[in-house]
Amino acid sequence: MMDRKLNHYDVIIVGTGAAGLFCALHLPKSSRVLMITKDKLENSDSYLAQGGICCLLGDEDYDSYYEDTMKAGHYENSPEAVSNMIRNSRHIIRELIRFGVDFDRKPDGRMDFTREGGHSQYRILHHQDVTGREIVTKLIARVKERPNITIREYLTMIDVLEADNRCYGIVARDEEDNEGLLTADAVVLATGGLGGLFSQSTNFPHITGDSFAIALRHHIQLKNLSYIQIHPTVLYSQKPGRRFLISESVRGEGAKLLNEDGERFTDELQPRDVVAAAIKREMDKFGTDHVYLSFRDIPEDVIRRHFPNIYTRCLEEGYDITKECIPVVPAQHYLMGGIQADTRGRTSMQDLYAIGETACNGVHGANRLASNSLLESLVFAENAAAFIRERQGSEGQAEAALLKTIEEELPETYEEEDVMETVNKGLLLEEIRKQGTGFYEQWRDL
Asked: Quick check: is 272 catalytic?
C-alpha cells in the first residue's frame, strides 16, 4: 500500500553515479538532500569506467579538442554544450583533485596523459585502468561526510509527482515493495542509460532506462533515444551477465585488432562507431562471433602498470595478454540520447532536471568521443547544482491541497516490479524502433 506520509526534501537526486554525487557536493550544505539508488551505492556505470577523463591541455588545444568531439559526433553536437564542457574541463579536474581523486603521474610529477580513439592529442587523465572507480569512490567518501545528504540504497523511483507540467517529487518503492511519496523543490534525474535492456552490454543489469519510460508517460521531451553507442571491444564470453569492457585506451597505447586470419583490418583509433562497424563486417565475412585484440606492441611493463585490472581479469578468464591475443566483440555501451536538457540540466518539466547519461544536452551528438562521458557528467552536474542553488527560496513548498490532488490522481498501487520492467522495456524499445537510424538492423542481436 502507498505510504501517505509526505517526506519533503529540498532536492532529491535519483542515482548515485558520478553525475549525481558531483551535483550533491555542489549544493549548499544547508540544503536537505536525498540521494536514492535502486541497487548498491557503488553500482553505477560511472564506477565501471576504465579509460579516463578528458582535459583541455591548454588554449592551444581548444580547436583540436572541439573538432575531435564534433567529428566523433558526426557534427550533430550542440556547439554550446561542447564548448561549455571543454572550457570547464580544467576546473573539473581541479575539483576532483580537491575531493581526493588521484590521477596517474609521470616520474617527474607531471600528469600522465593517454590517448583514445578519435582523439588527435594525448589529453586523457586516468587512474590505471579503473578511473571511474577512483572518481566515484572518492566522491562517495566526500558525500558521506556531508550531514545534509541522506543516501538510500535499494529504493527505486517508479513515478514522478506532477501537476501542470511541474515536478513536485517522486514515487519510490523499497525492497519490501512498500511505495512512498517523496516531495522536493527540485528533482534531479541521474539514473544512467538503458544498457539493462540488452543481453550484450557493459552496463549493470539494473540500469534499465526507468527515467525514460517515466518521461514517455508524462510527456517529458526525449531526444535521440535511438542514438545508442556500441563499444567495439568487450571480452568475448558465452556466460550470461554484464560484459567486461576492454578499454579503448589499450588501442591508444598500441593494441591491434586482428581477424580470423591474424590480419589487421582497420585503424583502431577511429571513432567507436566506425571501429565497431569494421569489426562486425569482419565477423560477418568470416562467419565468426568475435575478432581478436593483440597487445604485442605494448611493452609488458606498460600493460602491468597502466592496465592492471584488464590484465588480472583476462588472466581469470584464461588469457595472458602479455603473451596472447584475446577474443573481443562489440556490445551495447552508452546512450547519447535521453531526456532533453539544456546546459543547466533543465528539462521540459519545471523543477525536473536531468544530468549524466540520462540527459541529452547535445554534447555527444550522434556518437560519443571516448572519455568525454565522465567529464560531461561532472560539468553539467555542477551547472545544474548552481542553477538549483540560485532558485532555492524563490518559490515555496507546494500547498497541501495541491499535493493531495496529485496524490489522488496516482494509481492505488503500481504494477509489480517484474511486470513494470517488462512494460517499460517494451515501451522503450518501441520508441527506439520508431526513431529508426538503423540501430536495430545492424545490432538487433545484442
From this structure: yes
CB 33 within 8 A of CB 9: yes
- The active-site residue, picked from 115, 272, 346, 368, is 272
Alpha-carbon torsion angle 332, 90, 35, 352, nearest 10: -80
Confidence of residue 1 (pLDDT cuts 50, 70, 90): very low
Distance CA 181, CA 403 (A): 10
Exposed e or buried b per residue across 121-145, where buried means at least 16 C-beta atoms within 10 angstroms of its C-beta: eebbbbbbbbbbbbbbebbbebbee
d(CA 47, CA 247): 14
Cell numbers found for residue 404: 493531495
Please name the residues in contact with 59: beta carbons below 8 A apart, sequence gap of 6 or more: none
- pLDDT interval class at 214 (50, 70, 90): very high
In angstroms, the CA 370 to CA 439 distance is 20
Q: Report pTM.
A: 0.89
Render pLDDT for 420-445 as a digit per residue (tens, 0 to 9): 999 999 999 889 888 866 554 566 56
pLDDT single digits (tens) 302-318: 999 989 999 999 999 99
Q: Are 377 and 355 in contact (CB under 8 A)?
A: yes
Give all strands of the β-sheet with 256-258 in edge-to-edge order: 228-235, 326-335, 291-294, 256-258
